[in-house]
Amino acid sequence: MRKVSLVCAAVCTAAMLSGCGRNTYDDYTIPPQEECVLSPVSNGFEEKHYSGIAPTKEETKEVFESKDG
Questions:
Q1: Per-residue model confidence as pLDDT tens digits over 2-53
Q2: 24 C-beta neighbours (distance < 10 Å), count
Q3: Could you tell me the pTM of the whole model?
Q4: Which residues of 4-19 are buried (b: 16+ CB within 10 A; e: fewer)?
């Protein structure tokens, strides 16, 4: 039983140290992905009107202060 666990540990260690055989990503190809439409962040705030909506106040859980204040 002890030999089996030592062999398993040696195999797992060798697998971790081997890096799965890939040294570089030169031959890596990006998998196909769906088309994505991005819009600039500024457009999202220009289209929505937040006037009259009070900000939500969150409870302070911890306060940190640096040595220099």
A1: 888 889 888 888 777 766 666 677 888 888 988 888 776 665 556 666 778 8
A2: 6
A3: 0.28
A4: eeeeeeeeeeeeeeee
